[in-house]
TrEMBL record:
GO terms for molecular function: oxidoreductase activity. InterPro entries: NAD(P)-bd_dom_sf (IPR036291), SDR_fam (IPR002347). Keywords: Oxidoreductase. It comes from the Bacteria. PANTHER family: DEHYDROGENASE/REDUCTASE SDR FAMILY MEMBER 7B, DEHYDROGENASE_REDUCTASE SDR FAMILY MEMBER 7B. Coiled coil: none annotated. This is Short-chain dehydrogenase. Belongs to the short-chain dehydrogenases/reductases (SDR) family. One of its GO terms (cellular component) is membrane.
Length: 257
């Protein structure tokens, strides 16, 4: 049994959380261009308004903070009141602070988990009951290849994204019989405000627009595991299956971080 894809984005009701910059903004622009109705959410309302100005009435601006469940619930209710339902939740929002053990800051780690793992859970909790009732819909969550295994400078970010992988896998098991599709999105390095913090060479770096193309194509095809660019994400997938001594040896010598 294969999960459903998306035949066309025309008139699809889509909620992009994290739409004000980076991958989220690129996805929102691509979806609007494809003819979707797009609800735009993030904390930065000015950027959302700018994006909505070119949407010719096809966008809703719903500013929110993903760490506040009441704001997510209120935004979702606005979508229901405006459109009568939702076809796709695309959760892209997240935070990234490079961190190693000698700089470990629990408060930063807590905020990272709250935004990157509990944030998507709050949004899924809001939209899931109706999708299950209607036996339709798509849930797409952007994680990261940093969730595949432990990597330098990802002491809080990596665990938050590893949690997303587990969450999506379990959602897939439960929702496939219900007719609700789940898309686990694991980008490699993408040129965004977040990765601009990195002080190391980022292999196979791609643009946010290239990432958006990969994501939209993957969802249309009904893929669960959407990872890219393959030359980098495939290498990290391979590292996951190696014995730890070999894995750590490779990371220490070839991951220049």
């Amino acid at each position: 049994m294969k999960q459903k894809g998306i035949d066309s984005f025309v008139n699809q009701r889509i909620w992009v959380i994290g739409a004000s910059s980076g991958i989220g903004e690129a996805c929102a622009r691509a979806l609007l261009k494809a003819g979707s109705k797009v609800a735009l959410s993030s904390r930065r309302v000015e950027r959302l308004n700018t994006l909505a100005e070119s949407a010719q009435g096809m966008a809703l601006v719903l500013p929110l903070d993903i760490t506040h469940k009441d704001q997510i619930d209120t935004a979702y209710q606005t979508i229901l009141d405006s459109w009568g339902g939702l076809d796709l939740l695309l959760f892209v929002s997240g935070v990234y602070t490079p961190m190693r053990a000698d700089q470990f800051d629990f408060e930063i780690a807590q905020k990272t988990i709250d935004a990157n793992l509990l944030g998507p859970m709050r949004a899924v909790a809001a939209v899931l009951p109706q999708m299950i009732t209607e036996h339709s819909g798509h849930i797409a969550i952007v994680g990261s290849v940093a969730g595949y295994s432990g990597l330098p400078k990802a002491l809080a970010y990596g665990p938050s994204k590893a949690g997303i992988i587990n969450f999506c896998e379990t959602l897939y098991y439960d929702l496939l019989p219900q007719g609700v599709s789940v898309h686990m999105i694991s980008p490699g390095f993408v040129a965004t405000e977040a990765t601009a913090q990195n002080d190391f060479e980022m292999p196979a770096l791609i643009t946010a627009e290239e990432a958006a193309t990969e994501i939209l194509n993957g969802m249309q095809a009904g893929k669960f595991d959407i990872h890219f660019p393959k030359r980098f994400s495939g290498f990290l997938k391979f590292l996951r299956i190696l014995p730890y001594p070999v894995y750590f040896w490779i990371v220490q010598r070839f991951v220049k971080i």
